[in-house]
Design a protein that fits this description.
single chain; mainly beta; four-stranded antiparallel β-sheet; 4 helices; 29 strands; 33% strand; elongated; Fizzy-related protein homolog; Cdc20/Fizzy; cell cycle; mitosis; repeat
Length: 484
Amino acid sequence: MDLDYERRLLRQINHQNVPEGHLSKSGYAACSPVTVKSGDRFIPTRAGSNWSINFHYANENCWSPNQNQRAKDASTDTGKDAVAYAALLRNELLGAGIETVPDPHTDDRRHTILMQDTHSLFRYTIHTKRVPSDSEISPYSLSPLSNKSHKLLRSPRKPARKISKIPFKVLDAPELQDDFYLNLVDWSAGNLLSVGLGACVYLWSACTSQVTRLCDLSVDGDSVTSVCWNERGSLVAVGTHKGFVQIWDAAGGRKLTSLEGHSARVGALAWNGEQLSSGSRDRVILQRDVRTPPPMERRLQGHRQEVCGLKWSPDHQHLASGGNDNKLLVWNSSSLLPVQQYSDHLAAVKAIAWSPHQHGLLASGGGTADRCLRFWNTLTGQALQSTDTGSQVCNLAWSKHANELVSTHGYSQNQILVWKYPSLTQVAKLTGHSYRVLYLAVSPDGEAIVTGAGDETLRFWNVFSKTRCTKESKSVLNLFTRIR
């Protein structure tokens, strides 16, 4: 028996308020936030217009990896000890009979422990001595702990999940706009990152780090306002400030077509197979099949202000759109009117994400005046959960492998949060950007994300793991199971 470990746990009764780790506020000692005006439409001026064709690695005056790892390990060990200490006290004071250390990140841990406590609370029992077996403690042991507590201390511990609070790569992205209503970063299935910088679109290969310029709209006096890859990663759609939507062949580096129809900038794009949906400042959503010349067009009108968010559901049956009118609308593939409308947000809705794990589950985030994450059951039209994040929600993305999602934020904390669903507990908080984190894309393997901000940097983070989540319940009472 490790008596030192027992004494260390028991001494925590007078030290329950453990100080946070050094990285709780910021992973960068030299990255201080920049004070900017509030409001989703504020665009700061830029000094100079010269920028090179290549991305550059940005130099960061940050903690060394060893310092970050030591602080993180200390915080993780403290959390483990706190959970073990709580279970040990329940064994000794309430006779809970806990034999294994609960996982501190398990959603139902607290409920399980409370259920165990209620069995022995306010009950009188007579303890009779028995001859100890090989698995029980010796009657001559000097330890004051019970047999259950000894088993608890000997139980193997599940290794804690570690999320690095520093990016594994930082790229310089000159002239990356600080505009809430634009979508200038996307990651393809072929592991190519497309970035809109000023009037140009650049492609960066995550495999070779090679950079190529796909297009330059300055010859037409235009600029890039949105980029979006198709599902196969062969075509990239480019929305422009003048209202055009261009389709480019990434491998050949040539423009296939230029679509008209919008009278203002196109800030949101979403592919659905061979169909492309575009949302504009003119308040209209256009759906077009790019295979037909001229393309067949569906015109969706439901928003009263600029359309700033578009996402198709994983089953390709429903389109979710968010607007500056604080509305979240859901459209099907046949009707010209929205089939559902959600009006709970108090600010612009740009952040939209469909869950790949639960059919019909939609997440959305509001702007500066709202700051809330909200979840919707689109099968029944019901609002499920909401939480106030404390700052403007700019983007949302679900993990492909676990029931988790990541959100990026603007005013006033400029942070990246990883959430566990449905408990909505924060798994990690990442900082480093000094401007609003307006852009987000997920890698093809689902493990890494890239974030972009008005500080003109792209930062790459490892936030998701490939470990599958607990299998979804197959009960007929589960509203999220698909009925065939």
